[in-house]
Amino acid sequence: MKFLKLQQVMDKTTLCRSSIYNLIKAGEFPENVTVMGKRKAWLESEVEDWMMEKVESEQHRPLNLV
């Protein structure tokens, strides 16, 4: 299990800080967890699962040929 800091999540997903927090607020991105009392971090596995879901949903999206 590996924790990611915000910058690492931003680098991995190519999302900006505000997009990450907006997606969390909408319930569409993994929430961060408190580590060592007050530091916030994300589980790398949850972020990677979210990324895989996005890739898979794009692959199954019908093409708009019009």
UniProtKB/TrEMBL annotation:
Pfam families: Phage_AlpA. It comes from the Bacteria. Transmembrane segments: none annotated. This is Transcriptional regulator. It comes from Vibrio spartinae. The lineage of its organism: Bacteria, Pseudomonadati, Pseudomonadota, Gammaproteobacteria, Vibrionales.
